[in-house]
Every structure is written in structure tokens, then in C-alpha cells.
Design brief:
2 copies of one chain form a homodimer. By secondary structure, chain A is α/β, with parallel strands linked by helices. The first copy, chain A, has one domain: Nitrilase/N-carbamoyl-D-aminoacid amidohydrolase, CATH 3.60.110. Chain A has 7 helices and 15 strands. A 6-stranded mixed β-sheet of chain A has the order 5-4-3-2-1-15. In chain A, helix 1 packs parallel to helix 2 and helix 4 packs parallel to helix 5. Chain A is globular, with a radius of gyration of 18 Å. In chain A, about 50% of the residues are buried. At the A-B interface, helix 4, helix 5 and helix 7 of A face helix 4, helix 5 and helix 7 of B.
């Protein structure tokens, strides 16, 4: 399976961003790409740096204008596109939603971000209602895709649930970056942790993992923080967590890579974690804390 | 907290192995060590390379001769020891059990290995009844220790359950190695995966992780396989998965390291995964597979 990850720096104008994404997809298609991954909220700036009710104007319905354009492109180029949008579902209900456009132009399915972060500069709990579709992979003409979003990548539970539901690949559109005020050692630990835990999802579940992150610096419109330096570093790793390809921290990139879904069958035969899970003893995972 | 990991190559004679472990503990104690970690089944060869009913003779009760010796040493040196023994509980019920000796010489608690592997050269399902004590950390004079054993290290569920129960450190006595017939690239992927997934447990839970592995080559008594080259590489990583210290692949070692339990409070404030877990949506973790 031939895959392309589009790592970009965004600007405010959604039309400009989408046009640039579509151009990158067209270029990737010339190499035989079958699956394209876009980064989290790729149509605009990362607006969650501050809590501003006006920013709900940025949301759009699904299906809507962006899925129509991307769906038409998916059909034209005969490939599958994983998009990530700010979804307006109803007044007062907005989601951070990944949408998969199948190669016939249809919407194969949506995933509404289940784990919502909230820390200085990433005020997502204000904007995004927690997802209510569960951890359900999305069936496409290329197979069953375990699409999750950003903060989900820190939760082994999410990866496991997707794998148990038959996901053949885990895919994380992402927008994560540094607080420029943190020292370089702390920044290095954060980026390394981000890579490590996602590689671990591959290892624990015997599936390839794709993380597509934003790059570039974006100012905090409120002026409260020093903004976010998105750390790029988009990557694909194989079923044993081995790194297959990785982008730079500070450069836009179109990462092309080929993966072999048959590796899952092979690696799970000799590392059969799914066989040995102690499902009789996992009940307490449904508690917040045990005291 | 000052910690020592004892990475050793074992031989057949339990008295020789235990004497060497105790000598290493005495040496570590001279540097102010408070917590000592021994590797999995440190009193003998890794007997699970073949299924032989006679090997059940190697098992011992807990409390028993080894816990008596290690308990006396813990009391004498005023430190906590994490040991790993082949436990005879009753005729036909044997466990792979970690025992924690507190600094007053008492047994602080036991953990019976919950996830039991079985693959060529590691026929543990023949010898070890799956643990029935659950994922309960062990309270000691040094704090609450999340002691797990080897194969458990591949299961994010085990690490999470220990953290939810208040474990301040995760500790994995281990005996893992290579099939010498695998090519060097495959061997490198396996060792790297073993390190990566344990670092990820630190990251996901904001706790330090200790892995203490065996080193040395051991022949397969049945002659069926090419034996096991235990890969050593014992390590300690911090609450963000950052590597603090690591042993060589093929050398015995006493790894000394200091960790700061206060880091957990610090890192969990800004990376609050435990706050955001979707406990309303994790029920399917108790299924084997979802079809």
C-alpha cells in the first residue's frame, strides 16, 4: 500500500490551505499513492491557542464544502484521503472530526476525537465536544483504517480498541508543538515521547502507525503565551515499531512510503499479545482511579 | 531514591547464583542503594526452553529458603529487594512470582505473573499457572511499587492498571533474548521494540520504569532450538520515557541510578492523561476481539 503524508505550515485563509493541500495530493498521486493523510485541522491556523467564541464560525458541516472538494479529488485521482475538520454538528455541538474520503468520492466514515486535551495554548475542551462515535475503524476500499486524532495518540486504550475492532493501520492527524519558552532538553523529551508512545502502539498491536503533524510557528492571538512551534516530524512506523520514514521538524514535506499489511499476520504469529490479554482481569480499566 | 539493577548471566546451581546476587547487592549497598531489582528467575537457568516435568523440582515455596536469605539481607542492609522466583504453591499449581522483601526483612508482597507467554524456546504456559492476584502494586517502606514480570511488559493494560492503583514506579524483572537464528536486523527490531514499549508505559502513566534483564547465552537442553542469547540492556527511564541508564547487551552489570518520584506530580500536571481517559468508552477492552 502506497501512502503519502502531507506535512504543512498553515495560514489563516482556508481556501489557500486547502488549495495547497490539494496540489500536494495531486503531486503525490503521480507516484501511485493510494492513501493520503492530512494533518489535524489542515484548513486553518490552530485556533485553540485561545478561547474565542467567534472562532466557532470556522466550523463547517460534514458533509460540507471541504468534504465535497476532497471527495471529488479522491474520486478523480482514485485514492483515499484522510482529512481532519472542525465539524459543526448543531448549535453548541462542535467536534474535532476526521473524515475519510474513499476513492469513489464518497465519505467512507467519520471519527470524532474522543480524548480532548486542555492545557495552556491548547484549549480544546472549549471548542470540541468529546466524540460519541466510539473507537470504530473506518472501512474503505483499501481496508479498515483506525483513524484517531492527536491527543488520542497518548492513550494506549484507543489504539488497542481500534486494533480489537480490526483496524489494519492506525492513523493520527496531529497538531502538536512546543511552547517556545521550554528549554531545548524539555522540548526534546516531549517530541521523543510523542514518537515513542506511537511506535509503542504499533508494537502492542502489530499494526503500522501513521502520524501526520503540522509544522511552522503560529502566534497566540491573545498574546498570553509565546505561541506554538509545531514540531512536524510526521512519520510512519512498521508493525514492530520500526521507523520507516520521518519528516523534518521545521520543513513542509510530502512523505511517501510503502507498507505491507501482510506484516501484521506475520508479526502477530510470533508475538501473540492478543492471544494472551487477561480480559478476565481488566475490569478496573473502566475506573478513573482506584482509591 | 537510589536504585540498583543487577544484570547477570546465570548457571545451573541455585546456590551459586544466589550467592553472586547477594554479593552484588552488598556492593550496591555501599553506595547508599535503597532499592535493588533482580532479574526474572535469577536463581537458575531459564528452564522454560523445553517442557520437562522434572523441572518442577526447581520450584520453591514462598515464604521459602530464598525469601529467607534475601529477607535477612534486606534487613541487614536496610534496603528493599525485588526478587523473582519459581513458586510452588501446590501440587500442579506453580507460578512465576515476584517477591518484594522490605527493609525490615519481611515480605512486603508478591505479584504472580499475569500474562504468560508461549512460543518456541519460551514454553511458559507449561510451567506457570496464570497469576490470580491481579495487578496490585506492593506497598513498601519506599513507596508503592508496581511490580510486573517480563511478558507483562508488552501489555499497556498491565502498566495502566498498576498506575491506576497508585504505583509510583513500574518494575519488570525480565528474561528475554534472541533466537540466534534470527538475522541481526530482526534482532535489532526486537530489542528496540522491547525498550520502546516499556518507555511508552512511563510516558502513558507518568511514572519511571525499571527493566532488569538477564544476559548470557543458554543452550536448549532439548537440542531443538539454537538456545537463547539473552539481550541484557537493562534500563531505567524517567516519567517522560527519557533513558536514564542502560546496561550492555552482553555484559553483567550493576546499574546504579537515582530517580525522583516528585517528577510524577510535575509531569502529570501538564500531561494529564489520567484526567482525560474515556472510561465511558473503554468497555470493549474486556473482549478478546470484536467480531
Amino acid at each position: 500500500m502506497k501512502i503519502a503524508l502531507i506535512q504543512q505550515a498553515n495560514e489563516a485563509d482556508p481556501e489557500v490551505n486547502l488549495e495547497r493541500s490539494m496540489e500536494a495530493i495531486r503531486n503525490a498521486a503521480t507516484t501511485g499513492t493510494q492513501l493520503v493523510i492530512l494533518q489535524e485541522l489542515h484548513t486553518g491556523l490552530y485556533f485553540c491557542q485561545t478561547e474565542n467564541p467567534d472562532y466557532f464560525d470556522l466550523a463547517e458541516p460534514i458533509p460540507g464544502p471541504t468534504t465535497e472538494q476532497l471527495g471529488a479529488l479522491a474520486q478523480e485521482l482514485e485514492l483515499v484521503i484522510v482529512s481532519s475538520l472542525f465539524e459543526r454538528r448543531a448549535a453548541g455541538i462542535y467536534h474535532n472530526t476526521a473524515v475519510v474520503l474513499d476513492s469513489d468520492g464518497s465519505i467512507a466514515g467519520c471519527y470524532r476525537k474522543m480524548h480532548i486535551p486542555d492545557d495552556p495554548g491548547f484549549y480544546e475542551k472549549f471548542y470540541f465536544t468529546p466524540g460519541d462515535l466510539g473507537f470504530r475503524p473506518i472501512d474503505t476500499s483499501l481496508g479498515r483504517l483506525g483513524v484517531l486524532v492527536c491527543w488520542d495518540q497518548w492513550f494506549p486504550e484507543a489504539a488497542r480498541l481500534m486494533a480489537l475492532a480490526g483496524a489494519q493501520i492506525l492513523i493520527y492527524p496531529t497538531a502538536i508543538g512546543w511552547n517556545p519558552d521550554d528549554d531545548p532538553q524539555e522540548q526534546a523529551r516531549q517530541r521523543d515521547a510523542w514518537i515513542t508512545i506511537q511506535r509503542a502502539h504499533a508494537i502492542a498491536n502489530g499494526v503500522p502507525v501513521i502520524a501526520c503533524n503540522r509544522t511552522g510557528f503560529e502566534v497566540d492571538p491573545s498574546g498570553v503565551t509565546s505561541g506554538i512551534q509545531f514540531w512536524g516530524s510526521s512519520f510512519v512506523c512498521g508493525t514492530q515499531g520500526e521507523m520507516l520514514v520521518q519528516a523534518e521538524v521545521d520543513q513542509e514535506a510530502v512523505l511517501l512510503v510503502q507498507i505491507d499489511p501482510a506484516q501484521t499476520e506475520k508479526v502477530r504469529r510470533i508475538w501473540p499479545y492478543l492471544r494472551d490479554r487477561r480480559i478476565d482481569a481488566y475490569h478496573d480499566l473502566m475506573y478513573r482511579y482506584l482509591d
